[in-house]
Amino acid sequence: MKKASYESQNPFNLPKRPLLIVMSGPSGAGKDVVLTKMKELGCPL
Known about the structure:
The chain is built from two helices and no strands. By secondary structure, it is mainly alpha-helical. InterPro entries: P-loop_NTPase.
């Protein structure tokens, strides 16, 4: 079985080193929706 490359496992093309992302917005703006969708798409959170 062929092992998947890092690029195919990293759809957001994020660097391998840790990256701090701050999501800010008022209550009800949809921050949780964005995080949920990112997790569904495979973003390593």
